């Protein structure tokens, strides 16, 4: 059963956005965003929980300002927690290339009885598809250990009892479509709309389906003006239509050669056209943290979040009350971490996760 922490997290998001929605003629009651109704998803049940709504403020989201420490005693950190949550891109792999020492590190942690969970903001694949990627890279990871933001979008809709007679318009790739289908939701859009064009001419009016109750935006290599306009019409003209983002990552690792524009660029286009802020279900929102903590019965103080991004991975762990370890194998460099402008400080940092293999972690 999902805990109060999950309901509280959703409440924070809903209270900060509900004022932006129409107060009448809604497709369904937006009040469902401040709690959970009875339903089930992927073997776990969700119940409505009565609680006092919380408003997300800048102070409640302020990360810890303490200076981070270089990881010097890996064994001490390993012994202090029972679960490690790993980001994938920049931590486990870059593009389709495995980062050095990852298999041995994961094997060692499993041998010590640690639970491993993999959380990614990349929504292009479903959990099943990510399972195949792990397998292709020679890693033995169970599908139940994988939490992608594509899954989080479907889980979120399920958690609020999104009406099954309403549709979801998807600006994103196959991963979102597959997870929505598994959850029993109707959808349209996705990669197919990447082929569509708009012929602008005098008097032209673009039609859209009025039974779309949610627009989900994720990373989309087939992004175009048609999708921007269609999503904008649904959000602005369909009463009560939800605007959900899988993540707002500025950049991502499509290859190991360079950084590429991330899902945040697609979300930003819809923010600009609708003047609405989305409900974010991926990191650093705590929705996935609360979901997996409840699913596995994990105490958050016994979790260490390992990631390469300060504003998503580390903030995700801090918002969830976990220990945090930054690895410098991905987006964040030591100069970025030590910059006077950086206000997000992890508990520890190190060069890569294979530093766990040595009691004395490698010097950065």
UniProtKB/TrEMBL annotation:
Q: Which UniProt keywords apply?
A: Hydrolase
Q: Which residues form a coiled coil?
A: none
Which one Pfam family would you cite for this protein?
A: Hydrolase_like
Q: InterPro entries under this entry?
A: HAD-like_sf (IPR036412), HAD-SF_hydro_IIA (IPR006357), HAD_sf (IPR023214), PGP_euk (IPR006349)
**What PANTHER family does the entry give?**
4-NITROPHENYLPHOSPHATASE-RELATED, HALOACID DEHALOGENASE-LIKE HYDROLASE DOMAIN-CONTAINING PROTEIN 2
Protein name listed in UniProt: Phosphoglycolate phosphatase 1B, chloroplastic
Query: Gene encoding it?
Result: LOC104724047
């Amino acid at each position: 059963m999902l805990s109060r922490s999950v309901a509280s997290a959703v409440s924070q998001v809903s209270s900060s956005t509900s004022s932006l929605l129409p107060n009448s003629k809604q497709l369904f009651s937006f009040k469902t965003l401040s709690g959970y109704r009875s339903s089930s998803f992927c073997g776990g049940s969700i119940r409505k929980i009565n609680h006092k709504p919380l408003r997300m403020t800048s102070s409640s989201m302020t990360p810890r300002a303490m200076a981070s420490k270089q990881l010097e005693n890996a064994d001490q950190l390993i012994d202090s927690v029972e679960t490690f949550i790993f980001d994938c891109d920049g931590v486990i792999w870059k593009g389709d290339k495995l980062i050095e020492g990852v298999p041995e590190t994961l094997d060692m942690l499993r041998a010590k009885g640690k639970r491993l969970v993999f959380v990614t903001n990349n929504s292009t694949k479903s959990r099943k598809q990510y399972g195949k990627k792990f397998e292709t890279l020679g890693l033995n990871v169970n599908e139940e250990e994988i939490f992608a933001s594509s899954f989080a979008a479907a889980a979120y809709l399920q958690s609020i009892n999104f009406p099954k007679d309403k549709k979801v318009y998807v600006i994103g790739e196959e991963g979102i479509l597959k997870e929505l289908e598994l959850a029993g939701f109707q959808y349209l859009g996705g990669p197919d709309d990447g082929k569509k064009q708009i012929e602008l001419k005098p008097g032209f009016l673009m039609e859209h389906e009025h039974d779309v109750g949610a627009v989900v935006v994720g990373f989309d290599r087939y992004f175009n003006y048609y999708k921007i306009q269609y999503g904008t019409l649904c959000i602005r003209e369909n009463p009560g239509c939800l605007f959900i983002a899988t993540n707002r990552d500025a950049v991502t690792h499509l290859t190991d050669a360079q950084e590429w524009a991330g899902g945040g660029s697609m979300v930003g286009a819809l923010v600009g056209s609708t003047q609405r802020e989305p409900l974010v279900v991926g990191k650093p929102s705590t929705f996935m943290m609360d979901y997996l903590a409840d699913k596995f019965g994990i105490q958050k103080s016994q979790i260490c979040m390992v990631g390469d991004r300060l504003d998503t991975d580390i903030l995700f762990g801090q918002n969830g009350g976990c220990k945090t370890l930054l690895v410098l194998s991905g987006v964040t460099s030591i100069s970025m971490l030590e910059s006077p402008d950086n206000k997000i400080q992890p508990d520890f940092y190190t060069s890569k996760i294979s530093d766990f293999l040595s009691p004395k972690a490698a010097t950065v």
